[in-house]
Amino acid sequence: MTDNNIFKLNKPDQNDPLQEILREGARKMLTAAIEAEISIFIERHGSLKTDEGKAAGVRSGYMPERSIQTGLGDIEVKVPKVRDRCGSAIKFNSSLSLVPLTRSVYREY
User: Fold this and answer.
1) Which of 83, 99, 69, 70 is nearest to 38 (CA)?
2) For residue 99, is pLDDT > 70?
3) Which of 6, 58, 64, 99 is deepest in the core (most CB within 10 A)?
4) What is the pLDDT, as a whole number, of residue 21?
5) pLDDT, tens digit, for every residue of 77-87?
6) pTM of the entire predicted model
7) Structural domain range at position 96
8) Domain count across the chain
9) How far, in Å, CA of 8 to CA of 108, rounded?
10) Strand 80-84 to strand 57-62: parallel, antiparallel, or no bridges (unpaired)?
11) Residue 84, in any domain of the structure
12) Domain assignment of residue 6, yes or no
């Protein structure tokens, strides 16, 4: 009688393909939400111009990747930067990414 109803669980440190798929999906959703947010931010500040007539706030690459802790584990995301060309205190702070990016509101769910 070797059959039993005990089965082996994966250890949390092992890579589970489903967890990886879910983590990648969460990363893509967070990235898309942050990109949409910065596009709206740039549009709202589009009327601000420098003395030369150029846009005062422009995208300027990305900050280093940051880790957001979720129930799925840590997710690395890039947050865009905005450059202020005229010193008018234009600063982008994502409402999705708390400063510093350490916790996700979805962790409890």
Assistant:
1) 83
2) no
3) 58
4) 92
5) 888 888 777 77
6) 0.65
7) 17-108
8) 1
9) 26
10) antiparallel
11) yes
12) no
